[in-house]
């Protein structure tokens, strides 16, 4: 009786290595991020609550730009937080 052919097995390929997990953020990162977000918001609130005279009287509406800049720094930190 004829024997059936055996299947040729391919060479062994090991499973791909898993990528290392990204390191977590340092413990000071989250408090600094939240502080920047709150500080920027407080800066803008003070500007409008003081009838646009404070925190820096001489620069006028640029106070809003400074406040949003601080908020954006906190937001950028939030996107990189792990």
TrEMBL record:
- Stretches with biased composition (Basic and acidic residues): 1-10
Q: Which InterPro entries match?
A: CrgA (IPR009619)
Q: Which Pfam families match?
A: CrgA
Q: Which UniProt keywords apply?
A: Cell cycle, Cell division, Cell membrane, Membrane, Transmembrane, Transmembrane helix
Q: How does the record say this protein sits in the membrane?
A: Multi-pass membrane protein
Task: Report the principal subcellular site.
Answer: membrane
Annotated GO biological processes are: cell division
Where is it located?
Cell membrane
Membrane-traversing stretches: 28-49, 61-79
The superkingdom of the source organism is Bacteria
Region annotation (Disordered) maps to: 1-27
Instruction: Name the protein family.
Output: Belongs to the CrgA family.
The function of this protein is: Involved in cell division.
| Protein name as catalogued | Cell division protein CrgA
Organism for this UniProt entry: Angustibacter aerolatus
Q: Which gene encodes it?
A: crgA
């Amino acid at each position: 009786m004829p024997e059936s052919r055996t299947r040729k097995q391919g060479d062994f390929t090991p499973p791909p290595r898993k990528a290392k997990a990204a390191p977590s953020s340092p413990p000071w990162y989250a408090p600094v991020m939240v502080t920047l977000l709150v500080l920027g918001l407080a800066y803008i609130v003070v500007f409008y609550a003081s009838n646009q005279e404070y925190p820096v009287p001489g620069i006028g509406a640029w106070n809003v730009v400074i406040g949003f800049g601080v908020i954006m720094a906190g937001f950028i930190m939030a996107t990189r937080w792990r």
